[in-house]
Specification:
Blueprint: E1 16-19, H1 22-50, H2 54-77, E2 79-83, E3 87-90, E4 100-102, E5 106-112, E6 119-124, E7 129-133, H3 141-156
Antiparallel strand pairs: 1-2, 2-3, 3-4, 5-6, 6-7
Keywords: Membrane, Transmembrane, Transmembrane helix
Protein name: PH domain-containing protein
Amino acid sequence: MDDAPPDPAPRPAGVATYRLAPAFAARLVGFGVVVTAVVVLLVAVLAWALSWPAVVVVVVGVVGVLAVLGAATWLRRRYVVRLDDVGYHVRMVRGAGVTRGRWTEVESAAAASPHGIACVVLRRHDGAATSIPVAMLATDRERFADEVRARLERAAI
């Protein structure tokens, strides 16, 4: 009898999702921790000044920690880029440009570095563009670029 764990569920055919890189998720969670600490400090000062019971500070701290943990879990489950056979969808990227489109609307995909940030830029037939900063993705830059090019080529057939 084989004691090996079962294989994970296969990814749906034709769909690739790319999640937020751990370094970016850590920055966002760290920001949440700092905000929580400042709020707890302000509530502690108010509690002292207004003679509130200490339990108020504890409750605010616990709620803040739970909110940060919830945000961390949410970030781990969300994708930043989703590619399928029909098109693409980009989320959580400020300044991405067009965040959703069909491969048939894309004219070319190229590497670029606007503002010194390595991106894959999808240029569309209508003149608009989608910029995807590859450092934000939890994957190898070349692998992602190859996947985008392959999907673009398949759509052109």
